[in-house]
Here is the input.
Amino acid sequence: MGFDGVVLAIVISTIITAIVSWNKIRQLSGGLRININQKLLSNFTKYGLSSYTSVLITYLNLRLDQFLISFFLTLDQLGIYMVAVIVAELPMKLSNAVTKVLFAQVASISAENATTLTNRTMRIIMTLATILALLLAMIGSRIIILFFGSEFSDAGIALLFLLPGAIFFNFTQVLYSDFLGRGKPQIGIYTSLLSFFITLLGGVLLIPALGIKGAAITSSFSYIIAAIIMLWAYLRTTKQSLRQVLWINMEDVKFIFQLVKKISKKKYNI
Here is the structure.
């Protein structure tokens, strides 16, 4: 069925997963009955719409540079740029792995403990993201040529301009999860909107002149600006210093080693 088959397979798998999950939850809970609480539904809807709006704008911003490239440049340039994006998004996956858990934790503990948890998460994630980005800056071009071929060698240049933005993107993700847990999803809307318009304006100005390099510069700049605004809002809300949020310390290093050791024991039953 070609492309239609891919779409159909995703839809079917999602429906089956939902049905199996619902049945499993019903068995574990001893039965579920739908009962609508109007006030709770209203509160959830307001909160959910604010949260979803921010996520939607962020997603559109992540793909806006690609839409602009397809408009101003050729499809082969878009393909080259997409390869650079795939590699550059690797450091972003670090924050994706912890944001849902962080949100749940922040929502269930005191503001002081939430700040401590978010600070440590930020310090560790940013350190790991920076290390990974530096590693990709050194060998990213070789990885691209190895897996995609020499025809995509120009993606290596775009990658270098995308990596700073990839590091700062983690700022936004981690801190937004903290704000979600504190019941302040609207902050994400403001930063996402600003980042979106920066990408739009910068893309229109730079892509026709600089090609995919212009798209990469614009994307990185928009991510950095959004991260700075989110960080400013977080520091103002929590009364923390920049050093407390970003500068990794020996306690964090010990925590990482203890976590790795704990995971290894579970995995290999040591």
Summary: The chain has a mean pLDDT of 91. The CA atoms of residues 146 and 257 lie 33 Å apart. DSSP finds eleven helices and no strands in the chain.
